Amino acid sequence: MVGCGRNASALAAGAAASDICELTDVIDIAPDAARSVARAAGARAHVGDFDSFLESGADAIDAVIVNTPNDSHADIARSAIAAGRHVLVEKPLALSADAAGAVHRAAEIAGVRLMVAHTLRFMPANAHVRRALDDGELGRPGMLRSHRWLRRFPGPPAGWKHDPARSGGLAVHEAVHEIDQALWLIGERPTHVQAQATPDLLQIHLGYESGAMAICGIATGLPLGSGYYSLALIGSLGAAYADDHHNVHLLYRGGRPQALVSDQRASAVRAQLDEFGSAIAENRNPSVSGADAVAALQIAEAVAASGAAGRTAHLTESGNVIA
Amino acid sequence: MSSPERYRVLALSAAKHDYVALAFKDHPRFQVMGVSDESSAADWVHEQNEQLAANLGVAYEPGVDAAIARHRPDVAVVSPEAARHAQLSVRAANAGLHVVQDKPMAPTVADCDAIVDAVERAGVRFLLWNRNTQPAIVEAQRAVHAGEIGEPRAIHVDFFFSKDAGVLLGSDEPEEIPESWLSEGELTVEGIYPLAHMRHILGLDALRAFGRTSAHFFRRHAERGVEDIATVTLEMEGGVIGSLCIGRIGAPSHPNIGELRVHVIGSTGALVVAEPRPEIAVYTRGLAPEDARNRRTDEETDRRQVDLLLAALDTGGDTLLTARQGRHIVAIVEAALASARSGQPCKVSRPS
Fold it and tell me: Of A132, A205, B58, B143, which one has the greatest count of Cβ atoms within 10 A?
């Protein structure tokens, strides 16, 4: 795993729970971060950048998890691909659809598996919604509504997530989750994108050729709490509601009343790593491909363009954006 | 001038619904005097009016002017077909009656302007019937206005009716709904409720709307070219972001009447309220799964609205949803529908 920042402990915990993946090495330019995560994960710590790790001899590893700031995802992924390693890249795959497309093509040429961490697909509640859709219980999807609220980015305002040049901004850094989710559940590419943005709110309104529609809201400025998530998918035969996990996944343990909030994210990270490992073992493409990540980034660019212009962005078949 | 002991109410048509007039039945400060309508109304309208009159224990008397002259009412409850809303409400206001009117306010903003003009010239109160007295909405409004989540930044409302509108698109089953059925789209007709929630909770108007509409599920909607689902995003006063998801989503799609959920994000917190979430769910041996409908506990929504109207009449204050506010809601719907046709956000028209 390259990058031992905030998300690293969740990935390490997911790997520890996985039957398929084993985290053997962690890499970071910050010695304390590398050693701390390595110690908790029972892995080897390497202090330095990814290229120095490769030069130090990395024969034992099959795959690389890229968990660095967004502006380095594409370069590190390409280095790993060039070294013949399968790659799981945290979202976004790159800061632009073009750059993401180059990584995707490199992986195809090299014959390695490239997966992008669009983790919402692996949240247990969402997986149930998708199964209901696949089983025909919901009929033809018509409307998707989702809300995802996050706490304020931790750390000082100077952190990379606060710098759009490094994070890609809210559309690229966060909304690719919602966009990928919409692609996954509606099953077609939107033709219309209308976005409204403030520094800590983003609202995406997607229209589809079939008549389906989606509104996805993201808030990053909640001062307290552990976040909030809800989703409703309305189909021609029925509807599915993946409610806030605070309401629907309470674990009662007997004795004195005690409710624990189940950790959907931990389950999702583990399921995501299992899928990545299984795809490698079975020599098949992962369920979230490089092409999926490119498609999500194309739409994220349309979101950014619409938000900036105050107009609707139209997506052409070739992926061009007209705002 | 002191308030009357009881306000005299005349119901003008029950072509659309009877529940607005029925909300006044047995209220200690209102007395329903009769039911009337235009003599030229369709036969089926006269039949529904007669039924309402029987339910209220009063007479049905076609001929609006004569009924007003005979009963000298204080309040008209107006619920004809939407196309006649403005006609009957303006007539009532011109006769000096306060007006309680069913939704939608009118098919066009121009019709709404005529109502606003008549009501304001006559100096009477106007209430557009709404659901802002539902407990979840009352609580959301209270929390926001008490400053519990700081300055509002965004409001999102989901408003889904779990009812059918005939057979599904692509079905080869015979249509259940007669060809004479003239229902309009869900945003057009039902949009008043969630948009009134937004207005009530935040006290803000919308400036621009972007809408998507689709006749996605039901064959009769598709044949008539009206929407069964719609999504609307709003640019509101003060930079607040708004959104609405609305639709007739089919009978099997919710255990209760449908989802009504409001999310409000503020500068220091956020709130989620849901009505009608399942309030009481009863499961019992021998109950078929399809019968396990959730039960609601709140039966007082309409009564609270009548009580608030009473307060407005007694004090001369504003009603819960005034003619100008109702006109603004129709303007939002009109902008959203225009946006759905043009593919671009549209300005919400302001009164001239």
Answer: A205
The secondary structure of residue B44, as a DSSP letter, is H
Q: What is the pLDDT of residues A7-58, one digit of tens each?
A: 999 999 999 999 899 999 999 999 999 999 999 999 999 999 999 998 887 7
Number of C-beta neighbours around residue A255 at 10 A: 6
- What is the distance between the alpha carbons of residues B264 and B15, in angstroms, rounded to a whole number? 36
Could you give phi then psi for residue B126, rounded to 5 degrees? -130, 130
Contacts of B347 in chain A (CB under 8 A): none
Length of chain B: 352
CATH code where residue B228 lies: 3.30.360.10
The CA distance from A151 to B36, in Å, is 57
In single-letter form, the type of residue at position A114 comes to L
Residues B39 and B159 in one domain: no
Distance CA B267, CA B35 (A): 50
Contacts of A314 (CB under 8 A, 6+ apart): A191, A192, A193, A321, A322, A323, B343
A223 and B268 in contact by Cβ < 8 A?
yes
Asked whether the beta carbons of residue A207 and residue B241 sit closer than 8 angstroms, the reply is no
Nearest-by-Cβ selection for B216 from A212, A221, A241: A212
B60 and B50 Cβ atoms separated by less than 8 Å = yes
Predicted interface score ipTM higher than 0.85: yes
Interface test with B, best of A198, A200, A228, A236 (most B CBs within 10 A): A236
- Which positions in chain A touch B163 (Cβ < 8 Å)? none
Alpha-carbon distance A8 to A154, whole Å?
15
Q: Locate the domains of chain A by residue range.
A: 8-119, 121-262+290-322
CA distance A19 to A21: 6
Summarize pLDDT for A209-251 with one digit per residue, the tens.
999 999 999 998 776 556 788 899 999 988 998 875 454 444 4
CB contact under 8 A, A232 and B245: yes
Give the CATH architecture of domain A8-119: 3-Layer(aba) Sandwich (3.40)
DSSP string of A113-151, one letter each residue: -EEEE-GGGGSHHHHHHHHHHHTTSS-SEEEEEEEEEEE
Domain hosting B198: range is 135-298
Candidates B153, B243, B254; nearest CB to A215: B243
Interstrand relation of A141-151 and A114-117 (parallel, antiparallel or unpaired): unpaired
The DSSP H or E segment spanning B126 is strand B126-128
